[in-house]
Amino acid sequence: MIITRTPFRLSFFGGGTDYPAWYQKNGGAVLSTTIDKYCYISCRYLPPFFEHKYRIVYSLIENVNTFADIQHPSVKAVLTWLECNKGLEVHHDGDLPARSGLGSSSSFTVGLINAINALRGNYTTHEQLAQDALYVEQEVIKEEVGSQDQIAAAYGGLNKIEFFEDSTFKVNPVILQRERLDELQDHLVLFFTGVSRYSTDIAKTKIANFQNRQSQLHAMREMVDESLSILGSSTTSILDFGKLLHESWLHKKSLSNKVSTDFIDDIYSTAIKSGALGGKILGAGGGGFIAFFAPPEKHTTLISKLNELIHVPFRFENMGSQVVMYQPNGF
Q1: Local confidence band at 27 (pLDDT 50, 70, 90 cut-offs)
Q2: Relative to the CA of 120, which of 69, 187, 256, 311 has its CA 20 to 30 Å away?
């Protein structure tokens, strides 16, 4: 049996510029980090004693005999693409809910590819994991998804990820003094809105509107470098990072009328009144998780005022997708 552990991600700046429809013409970049909340995939060869050949366990349980009968899109695509002709059992467990803006779908795909390769005795580099997950989601499943989630999940850490017009990418780890990194983490508060949604539905509206939102997308790309200047400066207040998040949120909201809702706007307004300097809905928008940047002494008030939401404590992580258990089962 193989068990992989793959982190979820929190994106700060540049979201939107990681869609191929944008960066293949303009280039793009994001600043994101992975956090200590994970997707776990266990995978083993299925003993030949059952009526089914493949058993897939997630929020549903699927017992099927062919790839074509698998309902889970990522499992179906990965098993077909990797030609997994031997009987297989796949289990998924996650620390956080799916369809919530933390890149959970891509963490699943990355973790599954990593698990199957490890089950076959093959080591997969972070770069190859990211490339394979991008191929599966964008070319096999043909989802309208960006390219940051797969890379973040594979590599882990706080990174500036650049996207180039030839569809290549570069991962630049952000190196900070420990005190500055802790300062950044200590100012962040994460909440779950309780609303799950399909990001591809929102992504389609954003992509369709790219031509009319070029100035906003260019500004969001520039904020990646501006935020790095703030983090890397010994004289600039960390509070400027939060103020920049607020500017970025205003740009993001303008990309599609589906990014925010009255419910989300009310949450955001309450947070600002309670001491937050900025924040953003994570992922494509529409619901899921929302992060705020606030001085630590304001967190108690912020959590109290947003007490209808689920507060999720977290810290950064830097390991990316890992095989955490390997035990051959002999079939």
Answers
A1: very high
A2: 69
**Which amino acid is present at 17?**
T
Angle (nearest 5°) at CA 262 between 283 and 107: 15
Looking at the structure, tell me whether residues 43 and 85 fall in a common domain. Answer: yes
Residue 200: which CATH number?
A: 3.30.70.890
Supply the pTM of this predicted model: 0.92
53 shares its domain with 169:
yes
For the purposes of burial, counting CB atoms within 10 Å of the CB of 175, is it exposed (0-12), middle (13-18) or buried (19 or more)? exposed
**Does residue 231 register a pLDDT over 90?**
yes
Q: Helix, strand, or coil here: 124?
A: coil
Q: Among all chains, which residue has been given the structure tokens 């970025």? A: 248
Q: Who's near 139: CB < 8 A, 6+ residues apart? A: none
* Residue 219 amino acid letter: A
Residue 270, φ and ψ in degrees, nearest 5: -60, -40
* CATH number, residue 81: 3.30.230.10
CA–CA gap between residue 79 and residue 91 (Å, rounded): 14
d(Cα 129, Cα 170) in Å, to the nearest integer?
14
The pLDDT tens digits for 272-284 are 999 999 999 887 6
Tell me, what's the pLDDT at 218? 93
Q: What phi and psi values does residue 306 have, to the nearest 5 degrees?
A: -105, 40
pLDDT tens readout for residues 31-71: 999 999 999 999 999 988 889 999 999 999 999 999 999 99
| Residues 6+ positions from 170 with CB-CB distance below 8 Å | 161, 162, 164
Among 234, 249, 324, 250, which residue's Cα sits nearest to residue 291?
A: 249
Running DSSP on this structure, what letter comes out for residue 102? S
Number of H helices, E strands in the chain: 11, 13
1: CB partners within 8 A, 6+ apart: 42, 43, 44, 325, 326, 327, 329
Question: How many structural domains compose the chain?
Answer: 2
φ/ψ of 293, rounded to 5, equals -110, 115
Beta bridge partners of 90: 43, 56
